[in-house]
Design brief:
The structure is a single chain. 38% of the residues lie in helices and 18% in strands. With 405 residues, the protein is an alpha/beta fold. It folds into two domains: 158 residues, Aspartate Aminotransferase, domain 1; 229 residues, Aspartate Aminotransferase, domain 2. The strands form four sheets. It has a seven-stranded mixed sheet with strand order 4-12-11-10-7-5-6, with helices on both faces. A four-stranded mixed sheet has the order 1-2-3-15. The two termini are 40 Å apart.
């Protein structure tokens, strides 16, 4: 590459709309749970593309599925259907509560489809006034205007008024507040089994069970946003399977494609049939490339070996983080399930999660934040014991630097 063609981090500031503030280094390749930047510095990847890279980087299962499909058929639109999308739909239906699937390109689009369907259900069941939606504070459901309003973090929506109406936010894990908020005009409750962006906060089992019972009683659609918790992330195929609580609609994305953009809304025949031809749509959703990759990833993850491995890796992570905190006295709590883990900073380090994330990259390990006070880990579901140990060693060095700074 000639000098004038060199890509640098400065080019981001020159050419990109400034809605992101990426790290100062540029990653150029990856293998497994290791990635390298332009200077060939190696990092252990505990971020996983924000819970997306379910099989890590350059996994042969995903590569083979993509390249084989790329030789056949890329895109035909939903004027026609295709074999890969039907195979993926079959797998999702046979392995979950759902009878029907709608495919799209992201978690936000999946939630958009779910919320629109809930409004349509409300109209059919209770008339034009049954359109109220209950969500929860600190939740995150996407960045479209509808989903960012449904999310319970005003910092993401306050500058884009007027916002869609009829959405109310209450305290997470507060069943009595939820019951008080649900009225005869409520069409849906949308909830994350574990709040990801909100701090890796698991829902109490009694809370989810109570929501299920009350939504059934009041003819309210219960939506589980499993964009971040789905496809093996918690050690089960979907987090609802850990609870005994079955939603009416489930949204999934992120890990489903292992890095290839895809999302899906899953539901039962009862609710799916309230959508009619033309009610909703997508140009790229369910295209053969995305569907072929997602099907291969899904089948690989949906095995006892991988799901048990996620549970084993959770134990290794938690024990390692606890050891770090014993020597550094940095974390108040380690929480989460499977390979969605949040380490909550002690009050004296409040607001400094971003600083520790940056410092960790200096030491060669990529981590995430979940708000200003929580370090989040969402690595590959098939990360090896050695990669976990090496990453935690590097993270420990960053932590000890951090507490002395």
């Amino acid at each position: 590459m000639q000098a004038q063609d060199q890509i640098t981090r400065q080019n981001f500031d020159d050419w990109m709309v400034p809605v992101f503030s990426p790290a100062e280094f540029i990653l150029v390749r990856g293998e497994g749970s290791r990635v390298w930047d332009q200077q060939e510095k190696e990092y252990i990847d505990f971020a996983g593309g924000i819970a997306v890279n379910s099989l890590g980087h350059a996994h042969p299962v995903a590569i083979n599925a993509l390249t084989e499909q790329a030789k056949k058929l890329w895109h035909v639109s939903n004027v026609y259907t295709n074999e890969p999308v039907l195979r993926l739909a079959k797998n999702l239906v046979e392995n979950t509560f759902a009878d029907k699937v709608f495919f799209c390109n992201s978690g936000a689009e999946a939630n958009e489809a779910a919320l629109k369907l809930a409004r349509k259900v409300g109209l059919k069941v209770g008339g034009e006034h049954k359109n109220h939606i209950v969500s929860f504070k600190n939740s995150f459901h996407g960045r479209t205007l509808f989903t960012v309003t449904a999310g319970g973090q005003p910092k993401y929506s306050q500058d884009f008024a007027p916002l869609p109406k009829g959405i109310e936010h209450i305290e997470y894990n507060d069943l009595e507040a939820a019951k008080a908020a649900i009225t005869e005009n409520t069409c849906a409750v949308i909830v994350e089994p574990i709040q990801g962006e909100g701090g890796v906060v698991p829902a109490n089992l009694e809370f989810l069970k109570g929501l299920r019972e009350y939504c059934t009683e009041k003819q309210v659609v219960l939506i589980f946003d499993e964009v971040q918790t789905g496809v093996g992330r918690t050690g089960s195929l979907y987090a609802y399977m850990n609870t005994g609580v079955v939603p009416d609609i489930l949204t999934t994305a992120k890990a489903l494609g292992g890095g290839f953009p895809i999302g899906a809304m899953l539901t039962t025949d009862h609710f799916a049939n309230m959508y009619a031809v033309g009610d909703h749509g997508t140009t790229y959703g369910g295209n053969p490339l995305a569907s072929a990759v997602a099907n291969a990833v899904f089948e690989f993850v949906n095995t006892e070996e991988v799901l048990q491995g996620v549970q084993n890796s959770h134990k290794q992570f938690v024990e390692g983080l606890q050891k770090i905190s014993q020597t550094a006295s940095i974390f108040d709590e380690i929480r989460g399930q499977g390979l969605l883990i949040g380490a909550v900073l002690k009050p004296e380090f409040a607001g400094k999660a971003g600083e520790l994330m940056k410092l960790a990259s200096d030491y060669g390990v990529l981590v995430l934040v979940a708000g200003p006070n929580v370090i989040r880990f969402a690595p590959s579901l098939v990360i090896s014991e050695d990669e976990i140990n090496e990453g935690l060693l590097r993270f420990s060095k960053a932590v000890h630097h951090f507490i002395k700074a």
